[in-house]
Amino acid sequence: MTRGTYPPIRLRSPYADEPGTIEWHRESVGQLAFDFAALTRRPAPEPGLAPSLDASRAATRFARACLEILNGYRPVAHVRSLCQPTTAHTLIEQLFDALRRMPPPPRRHQRRELVKLRRLRVSEPAPGVVEAAAALGTDARTWAMAFRLEQASTTWLGTVLQVL
């Protein structure tokens, strides 16, 4: 059902022949019913951190481009067009470092395990700024990736990338 602990719910007897029933009825008049749906409801996002649709799409696009690089479908230099020119070198170094930690290429007749995007969390702490955390993984290993995008006119460019 749900995780976590909740305060105990006390049940009182509604039977009229038990002592204290009249007092119980007087105390319960005007009380609100329990909202059991609130136990399974997701908490509302903090104001100002919920990303816009454009920001979410930009973060997804950047994460997928990094995955294509990590899986060998794109060269690392392709990330340069998605980054600010001043930070492109450090982002490329991060991807090279992550590539060194990836599983070795498979032997002849084995299929390579692809790195998949397991989860992506996106927040927009300020207008035009996106911060995201992604869980990447194969069947045997998991990595975390965090990045920051900033909006430059109509495009979103990466400024920070960390693959752990």
Give structural notes.
The longest helix is centred in the middle third of the chain and has 18 residues, at 53-70. Helices cover 24% and strands 24% of the residues. Strand 2 and strand 3 (142-152) form a beta hairpin. The protein is flat. The protein is an alpha+beta fold and 164 residues long. The protein has a domain at 53-163: Nuclear Transport Factor 2, Chain: A. It has helices spanning 21-28, 53-70, 88-101; strands at 116-126, 129-137, 142-152, 155-163. A four-stranded antiparallel β-sheet has the order 1-2-3-4. It has three helices and four strands.
Q: What attributes does this structure have?
A:
164 residues; alpha+beta; Nuclear Transport Factor 2, Chain: A; four-stranded antiparallel beta sheet; 3 helices
Helix content: 10-25%
Spatial order of the strands forming the largest sheet: 1-2-3-4
Query: Count the strands?
Result: 4
CATH class of the domain at 53-163: Alpha Beta
The CATH architecture of the domain at 53-163: Roll
CATH topology of the domain at 53-163: Nuclear Transport Factor 2, Chain: A
Percent range for β-strand residues: 15-25%
For the CA atoms, what is the radius of gyration?
26 Å
The pLDDT mean sits at 79
**Order of H and E elements:** HHHEEEE
Distance between the termini: 32 Å
Helical stretch tally:
3
Largest sheet, in brief, is: 4 strands, antiparallel
What is the general shape? flat
Quickly give the structural class: alpha+beta
Q: Spans of 5+ residues with little confidence (pLDDT < 50)?
A: none
Task: Explain briefly what this protein structure is.
The chain has three helices and four strands. It is α+β, with helices and mostly antiparallel strands and 164 residues long. The protein is flat and about 80 Å long.
